[in-house]
Amino acid sequence: MPEKQDFSDKTILITGAGGFIGSALCFYFQENFPKAKIIAIDCFRNNEYFSNGNLKALGHFKNLLGFKGLLLSGNINDKTLLKKLENEYKFDYIFHQAAISDTTVKEQACMLQINVNAYEDLLKIAIKHKANIVYASSAAVYGDASSPQSLGSEAPQNIYGFSKLMMDNISYEYLKNDLDISIVGLRYFNVYGKGEFYKGKTASTVLQFAHQILAKKAPKLFENSDKIFRDFVYIKDVVKANILGANPKKSGVYNIGTAVARSFQDIADILQAKLGTTYNCEYIPNPYLGQYQFFTQADIVQSEQNLGFSPSFSLEDGISDYLEEIKRLFDKEMKK
Ligand SMILES: NC(=O)c1ccc[n+]([C@@H]2O[C@H](COP(=O)([O-])OP(=O)(O)OC[C@H]3O[C@@H](n4cnc5c(N)ncnc54)[C@H](O)[C@@H]3O)[C@@H](O)[C@H]2O)c1
After folding, report:
1. Is 55 near ligand 1, meaning CB less than 6 Å away?
2. Which end of the chain is more exposed for a tag (fewer CB within 10 A), N or C?
3. CA angle, corner 42, sides to 56 and 321, nearest 5?
4. Cβ 126 vs Cβ 82: under 8 Å
5. Of residues 2, 14, 1, 7, the one with CA closest to residue 249
6. pTM score of the predicted model
7. What is the pLDDT of residues 177-227, one digit of tens each?
8. Which residue has the least CA distance to atom 7 on ligand 1?
9. What's the rounded Cα separation, in Å, for the pair 222 and 187?
């Protein structure tokens, strides 16, 4: 982790705190800067579903078990909540993770309202409070652009990727002004690690394949998975990127990945080796053809130069670090 940054006595807003990455940030600050005041926001799951059958909001209280900061349950589209944030606090930093994170959602208006509109509202609060802001963008902005994905080659294939690109455009627009704050957008590639379990079907394949194997079943992969490559980045590296993004050398939008492309078959093979199994994988047709990324690999040269970011975890290292938690979840949550 970066050493020189001190968040003690700072007031920090974390949106999407009931989710995977937001909760990891809450615990990072709680453990490393116990004097920091953390305000955590999420709207949490509420038995409402999109037309794809997935939950509208994925936040889950269990992601925050042990959290000692201030929790506000609310919708970042709610103007009353936004006013409360603006008037009742004075933030030093904002880490904005709340979003519809499901790349297969089809409802365009809802996606844009939550992901794009709320971002600009939070950005205005950041400017007013003089709070540096770091927000979650996504590698989905690149769609089927060729690898390694670099800034400038955006070609989103779905409304999710488009929404994240529009957030980045808002940042560029605001950065044309002389601001007192830094704005950093982080285009995460495929994140995996502790805290993703409650994302259900949208959790990483690392977790899904591992739980299939632990259930004594063959891992279920899309056909040609040895030829589908992604840049899989571990949650601890994503937290590190957020910390570095809070005080960057230069505001802007940055890729966050390992700069290494690995196949879905690699994941199944690594897991089988670590779990001591030799199942023949099951291959199923890919239902997302036409809006699916077949090769992602982050170009992280600018992230290294301007944030000082370099990943610490290879896919093998990340899976090793994650394995105990995967087994715990299988015993405590899957066997119910
Ligand atoms: N996990 C990945 O691989 C990945 C990759 C690229 C980008 N991202 C982005 O990173 C961020 C965090 O992703 P995650 O994986 O933790 O997803 P997540 O779904 O676990 O977390 C997002 C959180 O936002 C909350 N939320 C949604 N709509 C809200 C609203 N209107 N008001 C308040 N809260 C709301 C959800 O309840 C959820 O807890 C998201 O912006 C996502 O788009 C994630």
Report:
1. no
2. C
3. 90
4. no
5. 2
6. 0.97
7. 999 999 999 999 999 999 999 999 999 999 999 999 999 999 999 999 999
8. 138
9. 25
- Which has the closest alpha carbon to 24: 85, 95, 101? 95
* Residues 6+ positions from 250 with CB-CB distance below 8 Å: 306
Q: Tokens representing 175? A: 């950065």
Rounded Cα–Cα distance for residues 284 and 224 (Å): 9
Q: Closest Cα to atom 2, ligand 1: which residue?
A: 191
Would you tell me how many other CB atoms lie within 10 Å of the CB of residue 120? 14
Query: Do residues 131 and 51 make contact, with C-beta atoms less than 8 angstroms apart?
Result: no
Phi, psi at residue 157, to the nearest 5°? Answer: -105, -5
Nearest to 193 by CA among 32, 64, 325: 325
Chosen CATH of 11-334 out of 3.40.50.300, 2.30.42.10, 3.40.50.720, 3.30.70.580: 3.40.50.720
Residue 221: strand, helix, or coil: strand
Residue to mutate (ligand 1; options 75, 101, 236; most atoms within 8 A of CB): 101
**Ligand 1 site, residue 138, Cβ cutoff 6 A:** yes
Q: Which two tokens stand for residue 167?
A: 């957030």
Cα 216 to averaged position of ligand 1 atoms, centre (Å): 31
Q: How far apart are CA 74 and CA 100, in angstroms?
A: 14
- Which residues make Cβ contacts (< 8 Å) with residue 280, sequence separation at least 6? 218
- Determine which helix (DSSP H) or strand (DSSP E) holds 240, and give its type and residue range: helix 235-245
Using CA positions, which residue lies closest to atom 27 of ligand 1? Answer: 99
pLDDT tens by residue, 249-270? 999 999 999 999 999 999 999 9
The two structure tokens encoding residue 45: 């799951």
